[in-house]
Write a structure and sequence with these properties.
- The structure is a single chain.
- The protein is mainly beta.
- The chain has strands at about 5, 10-15, 20-25, 35-40, 45-50, 60, 70-75, 80-85, 90-100, 110-115.
- A hairpin with a 4-residue loop joins strand 7 and strand 8.
- The protein is globular, with a radius of gyration of 13 Å.
- The N and C termini lie far apart (about 40 Å).
Length: about 120
C-alpha cells in the first residue's frame, strides 16, 4: 500500500516562494501521472498541476500558470512543486496524488501553505 507524504509548506509573505515535496513509500510512482491539488478553508479540493509520466509534459490550473512548476525525480520517487510569486489566495493545504486516473492513492496529510499579505 502506498503512502504519500507531503512536506515543505509553511508561512510566507506574498511574493515569496516555497518548494513542496511529495514522497511515496510502498511503491514507485513509475508509470503514474502525478499531480498536486489544494484545498482552502471552506472550499473543495482543486487541481493545481500535473506531470505526465511518459512524456514529462506538464499542465497547470490557470490560477497558477507562470508561477508554479511541477517536476519529478523518479529515482527518489518524489514529486515537487516550486511555487513562486505566492499570493494570499494560494493559502491552502496542498496534497499530491494521481491525475488522469479512475482511482487515487490513499490521500496523505497534506502540507499547509499560508501566504500573508
Amino acid at each position: 500500500q502506498v503512502q504519500l507524504v507531503e512536506s515543505g509548506g509553511g508561512l510566507v509573505q506574498a511574493g515569496g516562494s516555497l518548494r513542496l515535496s511529495c514522497a511515496a513509500s510502498g511503491r514507485t510512482f513509475s508509470g503514474f501521472d502525478m499531480g498536486w491539488y489544494r484545498q482552502a478553508p471552506g472550499k473543495e479540493r482543486e487541481f493545481v498541476a500535473a506531470i505526465i509520466w511518459y512524456v514529462g509534459r506538464t499542465n497547470y490550473a490557470d490560477s497558477v500558470k507562470g508561477r508554479f512548476t511541477i517536476s519529478r525525480d523518479n529515482a527518489k520517487n518524489t514529486v515537487y512543486l516550486q511555487m513562486n510569486s505566492l499570493k494570499p489566495e494560494d493559502t491552502a493545504i496542498y496534497y499530491c496524488n494521481r491525475v488522469n486516473a479512475d482511482w487515487a492513492f490513499p490521500w496523505g496529510q497534506g502540507t499547509q501553505v499560508t501566504v500573508s499579505s
